[in-house]
Structures are given as C-alpha cells and as structure tokens.
C-alpha cells in the first residue's frame, strides 16, 4: 500500500491511496475459506462446497468490505502520523470507470486543512468585565419576597389592592372555565384593577383579556388557553369571586432566620441583609463570567483573521448528515456554523499553545465540587468524602458525562486564563443595570 498527498493550496489537499492485491488478498482468502467451512449448500457436504462456488457467491462482497476496512484504517493512520490538522472528514473523489474486477485499486480523497494563524489577546478595545452588586433596592425586594413566602393568608370580605382573589374565569363561546387564584399586583392597568377593588365573594366581574395581565404567560395560566392563542386573545370573560385573602408578611424574627439559614447563623436584620447580598453576588459571578466569556469569544473571532477551506466544508456539510443537503442548504448551514468553527479553532490554538490540560484527578475533583453544590441545594450541606467519591465514580463511568464535565472544566480554565492574561474595562453595576445593558 502506498499513500501520497498533493497540496492544492494551503487549505486543500488530495490524498491518494494505492492498494495492491497483496494488501487485501490474504485476508479475503481466509474469510472465504471460513465461509466454505460453514456453508450449507444442497448437494454438498458441509465444508466440501467448491471454492469457486463460494467465491462466485461471496467473493466480491468480501473483497469490497475488506478493501474499505483497509482503506479507512490506513487513511486515518496516515492523517495521524503526518499530523495533518484536518477539518471535517476526507471526501472520496468520484472515479470514472472504477472496476472491482481489477487487482489493484486507487482511491483519492479531498481533504480540508486547518489554517495556520496566531492568537493575540491584546485587543484594541478591551472587553467590559462586569462586577454585579446587589443594591439596597434588590435586597429589600428579596426580603419582601421571603416575608410573603413565609407569611400567611387572612380571609377578607371585600377586595382591596394587593389582595389575592380566587375565583372562576368563564367564556362559554371559547370553552373557557377555569378556577384560579390571582395576585392583584399582576393585574395590568388601573382600570382593570378598579373592577376588582370593592368586590365581594359571589360577585361577577366582566373583564377584557387584552392587556389584562402584565405578562401573557399569566393569561395562559389563569385562563388555561394555548400559548399561541394568548398573545392576540381579545375577548370578554367573566370572573366570579369565590374567596378573598390578604397576605400577611412574616415577621423578621429569629424563628424566620433559623428556618432560612439554620439555627443561630443569622440573628439580626442587618445580618440577614448581608447574607442575602453575599448569596446573590455569588450567583451574579456566574452570570458576569458567562457574559465575559461570550464577549471575549466575540472579540477574538473578530480580531483573529484567517481563511477557511470554505468550498470543501460546504461540500462536506452536504454529505455528512443523515439526509443529503442541496447546495443552497449547505451554504446556509456553513454560514450559520462558520463563527462557531472559527472560535473552535481559536480555542484549540490557545489550549495547545498554553498547555491547558485536564487530567483525571482534576476532573474528579471538579465533578465532586459540582456534586457538592447540587447536594447543598437540597439541604445536604456536609456530605462525606466517601459519599462524594462514590457518586463521582458513577458519573465518571459514563463517557457522555466525562465529555460534558471535561468541556465545562476546559471552559473554566480558559476563563481563568483570559482573566489573568487580558486587560478589561471593569464596570460595577447593579443586577437591573446589568440586565438592561446586556439584554436591551
């Protein structure tokens, strides 16, 4: 067997594989002899079928199968040994007048090569690194939510603003009849709210569904209508009140503090605020880190210029899926995935040049930290090392989980690498300011 490569340009090559009869014949002959030993053909004793008959029936199928195995095995070995950084997979070139009845075969493959490039972390316009803080407004809002959650409902005779009103929505024509409970603070507009205020148990209110709630999802929940229908639903519904309640807020006392954080860990409202601020800002770090990663990714893609074997990749995309794509579909798919491919190459270059590695012990400890975080969410604050080791061992026996956790760990290592080696414009913002700046 002989394998050679012709470079078309820096990004494209053709690999030629010559397979001689001596490369495949011994294996084909052995398989056919095994077939002969086990063949059951009427008129012949088992193991005594003429070899010519076996070759006629099975010969070409075995030949094709063995040549293809030999071809794939040696092509992959060649690409590895030559250290060719290929994109996609080699694409077989069509050959006219190919004949399996010949003794020797030649196969050609188009290959797309990864470009050579350098990555600079010195950006002309530094990326913004957000430090999200929990301000007093947010902390007070969180405390009020906690008081509501742990408070109690007190029955009333007449509706006032801020109450919780239970009842039934009806519209016979639309087939709506649903019992529900509404927090009046979610009602949109003074006009709608005023229809509730002053009402009593047994009263029926007529309401327009259009702009009834601040959020269309509330309309879906309270009327049990389909999602697509809710957005443009503009009908009258009747709401008959069955119960009126006022939510009394829980007292900010030691009993509540112990329920929230464990006995004696928080003793004053000041400590409560500090704890809420600390916990919130820990969660904000994850969001600011994710945004930093997104922004660094975009900046590196924009700054790092290199060409790709575009035509080869579009051709490969056409053939790689379960269903072949048209040329136009492949072009669209390439355009949608090009940015991701560029960052994949940039990331691979950074990882290789800076020896960012993941060994098993580091991965195991990373998995144990993740397990510990999840257990803490369910109140298991102090699991034993043996418990963590056992769970981690089960998770790491699953290759899909190993891959997922490895990707997370590499991402974490990359983020730390960027933080240590890039300059950022640091900006302190509240969570509301962060959301407004990023998403609006």
Largest pleated sheet = 5 strands, antiparallel
In terms of quaternary structure, the protein is single chain
CATH-defined architecture of the largest domain: Orthogonal Bundle
How many separate domains make up the residues?
3
Give the CATH class of the largest domain.
Answer: Mainly Alpha
Helix content: 40-55%
**Shape field:** elongated
GO molecular function: peptidyl-prolyl cis-trans isomerase activity; protein folding chaperone; ribosome binding
Subcellular location: Cytoplasm
Protein name: Trigger factor
GO biological process, one term: protein unfolding
Description:
Helix 1 packs across helix 2, helix 8 crosses helix 10 and helix 11 crosses helix 12. The chain has three domains: 111 residues, Trigger factor ribosome-binding domain (Alpha-Beta Plaits); 97 residues, Chitinase A, domain 3 (Roll); 172 residues, Orthogonal Bundle (Trigger factor, domain 2). The protein is α+β, with helices and mostly antiparallel strands and 440 residues long. The model has no long low-confidence stretch (mean pLDDT 92). The protein contains 14 helices and eleven strands. The longest helix has 35 residues. It starts with a strand and ends with a helix.
Summary of the model, kept short:
Helices cover 51% and strands 19% of the residues. The protein is an alpha+beta fold and 440 residues long.
Keywords:
440 residues, alpha+beta, Alpha-Beta Plaits, Chitinase A, domain 3, Trigger factor, domain 2, 3 domains, five-stranded antiparallel β-sheet, four-stranded antiparallel β-sheet, 11 strands, 51% helix, elongated
